[in-house]
UniProtKB/TrEMBL annotation:
<dbReference type="GO" id="GO:0005524">
    <property type="term" value="F:ATP binding"/>
</dbReference>
<keyword id="KW-0436">Ligase</keyword>
<dbReference type="GO" id="GO:0042245">
    <property type="term" value="P:RNA repair"/>
</dbReference>
<comment type="function">
    <text>Functions as an RNA ligase, in vitro. The ligation reaction entails three nucleotidyl transfer steps. In the first step, the RNA ligase reacts with ATP in the absence of nucleic acid to form a covalent ligase-AMP intermediate and release pyrophosphate. In step 2, the ligase-AMP binds to the nucleic acid and transfers the adenylate to the 5'-PO4 terminus to form an adenylylated intermediate. In step 3, the RNA ligase directs the attack of the 3'-OH on the 5'-phosphoanhydride linkage, resulting in a repaired 3'-5' phosphodiester and release of AMP.</text>
</comment>
<dbReference type="Pfam" id="PF17720">
    <property type="entry name" value="RLIG1"/>
</dbReference>
<keyword id="KW-0067">ATP-binding</keyword>
<dbReference type="GO" id="GO:0003972">
    <property type="term" value="F:RNA ligase (ATP) activity"/>
</dbReference>
<keyword id="KW-0547">Nucleotide-binding</keyword>
<keyword id="KW-0692">RNA repair</keyword>
<protein>
    <recommendedName>
        <fullName>RNA ligase 1</fullName>
        <ecNumber>6.5.1.3</ecNumber>
    </recommendedName>
</protein>
<dbReference type="InterPro" id="IPR041211">
    <property type="entry name" value="RLIG1"/>
</dbReference>
<dbReference type="GO" id="GO:0000302">
    <property type="term" value="P:response to reactive oxygen species"/>
</dbReference>
């Protein structure tokens, strides 16, 4: 089941981490306790790049993540301040001078704080935000490959109605409006799921919260560690807990000193079916597009995602 959440800043970790270190301690963060982590819904953290669907030019559009970051001089000053172990909330930014420029179409993430009408950076010195993915964009070509603005649909990977089966299908952008998703595939994050090939790149969108973990471990570090290492469902990049107040809490394998990516992942252990009824769409899909290729595979079933191949 897909969960619609706020377009959030960096998702906090479940466990407290040591300053300037990645590894987690055994202490659950105050943020997680406050959000009632014990009644939250755990979902698979999918390894890709974050996207967002919202309105642009009067219609639903896919947006790519683009954080506004400090310029070199401001970043050095900020790092010196952090390493002095002072409270980073006391650091004063010059919003107009300290940050790199962004496109005019850039928008800040929804829960970002503002001061005098200007967005403020988070605790890492970044302003999370988004830019629209235009058709045939060169910079965001892999993003644009999974959307068709004429048909107003996106290629989405989700659970099929049959238990234990995944499904790839075109989903109206209007149905995922104001949702965040993960773009995965051949040219994203070294392709941990083995999708497509250099000759035939394959990318898909996965709604955040789409893959609920059915048998999650107790919220103790040793139990979670054992789950990651000894359970087939634990062959994932991490866990994201969706709390009742809308807060998200995450835990990455790296936080526990575990490796990622893995040779075999849980996502790739499940069969997948293609559901793409081309007759529903008035437009003609370009012959080299993913939409054209997947429409030719309508009704076909594969043992794993990495087994999907298009005819040459």
């Amino acid at each position: 089941m897909s969960r619609r959440g706020s377009v959030q800043r960096k998702v906090p970790c479940l466990f407290v981490t040591e300053p300037f270190k990645v590894l987690a301690t055994e202490t659950i963060t105050a943020k997680a306790i406050e959000a009632d982590i014990y009644s939250a819904v755990p979902t698979e953290k999918v390894d890709g790049t974050c996207c967002y669907v919202t309105t642009y030019k009067g219609q639903p559009y896919l947006w790519a993540r683009l954080d506004r970051k400090p310029n070199k001089q401001a970043e050095k000053k900020f790092k010196r301040f952090l390493y002095s172990l002072e409270d980073c909330k006391e650091f004063v930014w010059n919003i107009e001078e300290d940050f790199k420029p962004v496109p005019d179409t850039w928008i800040p993430a929804k829960d970002i704080e503002f001061s005098n009408g200007s967005p403020l950076p988070d605790e890492n010195g970044h302003m999370p935000g988004w830019v629209p993915v235009e058709k045939n964009s060169k910079q965001y070509c892999w993003h644009s490959s999974v959307v068709n603005y004429e048909a107003e649909v996106a290629l989405v990977l989700k659970h099929h109605a049959d238990p234990g089966l995944l499904e790839i299908s075109p989903v109206p952008l209007s149905e995922i409006l104001e949702q965040t998703l993960e773009l995965i595939g051949t040219n994203i994050n070294a392709n941990p799921y083995g999708l497509g090939s250099k000759k035939q790149p394959l990318h898909l969108l996965v709604p955040h919260g789409a893959f609920e973990i059915k048998n999650p471990p107790p919220l103790k570090q040793n139990d979670i560690l054992s789950w990651f290492e000894g359970c087939s469902e634990g062959k994932v990049e991490g866990i994201v807990w969706h709390c009742n107040d809308g807060c998200l809490i995450k835990l990455h394998r790296h936080h526990l000193g575990l490796c990622w990516p893995l040779a075999e992942t849980y996502l790739n252990s499940q069969p997948v079916v293609i559901s793409f009824n081309r007759a529903k769409y008035d437009c003609d899909f370009e012959p080299k597009s993913l939409f054209h290729h997947f429409s030719n595979l309508d009704g076909q079933r594969f043992d794993r995602l990495k087994d999907i191949k298009f005819d040459a």
